[in-house]
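Title: [Solved] Uracil permease 3D structure

Original question kept below for reference.
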Amino acid sequence: MSDNDSLVDKLRDPDYTPPLSQAIPLGLQHLLAMFVGNITPAIIIAGAAGFGYGSNSPDFHNMIYMLQVSMLFAGVATLFQTIGFGPIGARLPIVQGTSFAFVPILIPIVAGKGVDAMAVVTGGVIAGGLFHAALAPLIGKIRFALPPLVTGLVVTMIGLSLVHVGIQYAAGGVPAEGTAEYGSALNWTVAILVVVVTLGVKFLTKGVTSVAAILIGMLVGYVVAWSFGMVSFANVGKAAYFSIPNPFHFGIDFTVAAIVGFCLMSFISAIETVGDVSGITKAGADREATSEEIRGATYADGLGSALSGVFGALPNTSFSQNVGLIALTGMMSRGVVTICAIFLIVAGFVPKVGALITTIPIEVLGGSIIVMFGMIVAAGISLLTEVNWNRRNMVIFAVSLSIGLGLQQEPGTLQYVNDTVKVFLTSGLLPAAFLAIILNLIIPEEA
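Solution (posted by the thread starter after getting help):
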């Protein structure tokens, strides 16, 4: 066997860890690829609840806490996957991070209700995580219920449900609505600059620079915003250097709407994790994922989310962008991803890191979100290209999409509906997913 063949075999081996001089930079690459996506859901939910950017809420420090636990438990959940224990964990280089999929469900649960609504979120995250873990032994048997027609619709709906957030943030965010500042030339200039730089870096560079395009776009936008006096470091000075998150930080409450919503989305998230595991083994080792790897990844996904919920964080899932990074580098080492997890955990114990993130102007974040959520829509459309677009599938897609988006855009039509059911329906995503799954199962295939 030649030295080159030996090196290829090492790169394909999850148990191979390169020297630290190589492993640390590779671990940082994974961190750069997932960092913005990991913290954004917490920022959106805090903003929707009313204690986020520009709210001047006395509870603003809770958004810093949410950023802190987003980093910490993304790292912990990643360790579940890379190191594993017992049947839990795929023992593959899977990076976990805060899931966007649950954001459309979370927004109607917390909208305008402040920190008090987070107790319901905690209960929903824990229930959904445990349900997700319970699916692990059955995951191979339920994949039939979520073909590309359904998963493509769901991913597209996630993006479509959230694209307005990017535009809203780019214009100045909810607190600026109704003021002269909202939609100002300065706000749009900064946001558009982030978009332009992100696209330029993405398509004019290669390797890790291209992978980190959104982060680089934000950094450039941040510097420009700082030069215009849009950056304040007041919260950084107030934040502690070290803090241990506390269990049930927001309390805990269980509602039918939250439990049903989180469990349904956990079902879909579990199938997405199967796809990511398969993508990693195919890209990194040129083989199919084993049943044990898929089952272990599902256990880790669910239990990682449940543990996150205990400490007030949002659900975790495998991050697809890091699957792409493995394909790019050819490095299958779970040791490299473990280093990424350690960086996240260390940052999660330092509130000043979370406070520093809050110095990012909302317009800068808006520019990055426009790109991220647009990419989610594009990923959904990519999945839909695998569908055979006969009359049956077109009708299923059309009805599910129309009802889901329609209910989300016109919530007033549900004024006589029970509050619990209303939360479920106005998410848009859940009724669309539910309809697509049921119609796909009951409408016979065309001959």
